[in-house]
From TrEMBL:
The keyword Transmembrane does not apply. Residues 92-134 form the ATP synthase epsilon subunit C-terminal domain. This is ATP synthase epsilon chain. Belongs to the ATPase epsilon chain family. The lineage of its organism: Bacteria, Bacillati, Bacillota, Clostridia, Lachnospirales. Residues 10-87 form the ATP synthase F1 complex delta/epsilon subunit N-terminal domain.
């Protein structure tokens, strides 16, 4: 048995199209609607709404993994974390040029007169594009 197992928790990260991670972690940091929140072993039970942003995970060996996630929900209870998100992209899957174009399109749409529904859709598209760009800068710069 590995030493330091008391510092680990079970984690499952699931996107709509795949199970991305299903193993133990030392640490996980995610953006919620109320700001960043970090999880370590034996965190108090909680359910939170996850916002678009970078998900940082520290594996048992100490290495880090960073992915861009969309909106979702996270539950931590009994030393188990479950994160369900609508989208998840690794740096290898990300197309930075497409993200820049999406950002410009969304900004242009926000400058035009729109219905409330169109405005919210443009606002969400801009948030996704900005999240991708933030993730790209964090992992490549």
């Amino acid at each position: 048995m590995m030493r330091g197992n008391g510092n680990l928790f079970s984690a499952k990260v699931i996107a709509t199209n795949k199970v991305y991670y299903d193993d133990r972690l030392r640490y996980l940091n995610v953006r919620t609607l109320d700001g960043q929140i970090g999880f370590m072993a034996h965190h108090a039970p909680v359910v939170v709404a996850v916002d678009i942003g970078v998900l940082d995970m520290q594996k048992p060996d100490g290495s880090w993994e960073h992915v861009e996630v969309g909106k979702g929900i996270l539950q931590f209870a009994n030393n188990r974390l479950t994160l369900l998100v609508d989208t998840l992209e690794t740096k290898e899957e990300m197309d930075i040029r497409r993200a820049e174009e999406a950002k410009e399109r969304a900004e242009e749409e926000l400058r035009q007169k729109q219905s409330y529904q169109e405005f919210k859709k443009s606002q969400a598209a801009l948030a996704r594009a900005l999240g991708r760009l933030e993730f790209y800068k964090k992992t490549y710069m």
